[in-house]
Please model this.
Amino acid sequence: MTTERREPATTADERTMLEGWLDYHRQTLAWKCEGLSDAQLRTPAAEPSALSLLGLVRHMAEVERSWYRRVLADEPDDVAGPLYYSDEDPDGDFHVTDADTWQEAYAVWQGEIEAARRHAAGFGLDEVSRGRHRRTGERYNLRWIHTHMIEEYARHNGHADLIRERLDGATGD
Model:
């Protein structure tokens, strides 16, 4: 697999620009994981942190699911409940084991990205979510959610860049 990253056109309209940058950052995380073994992808950044590339992918699957399925579309927990975390292990997405694989995590993440795209397509940028955020109880428009997701990926891609460099010396933007 070779991940192609494409920046959005410099003259795109707002929605195309937001979705283009979101896809660019999704592609960046996939690129940072490319060519590594499951063992490397599970390797924590630095003790005592449990942060790993596989954990970041699982976390972003959870984040995609939370914002687009639960908040934006108001899907119920029996359809869009947590994937990897629980009340007992709120950071379960980052707690990977030897049984966790790239193939599974990548498939789940891509499935959540497709669900996010499907739900977002049904909303205008100014349209307010059907659901509410679990902690704040607030509703958000799609513009805010897209912008937040770009920020979320950008922050974690910085983590991914450092983890990848530690694993095999590979660097890049």
Summary: The helical segments are 14-33, 38-42, 53-72, 77-80, 102-121, 142-168. Residues 6 and 24 are 6 Å apart (CA to CA).
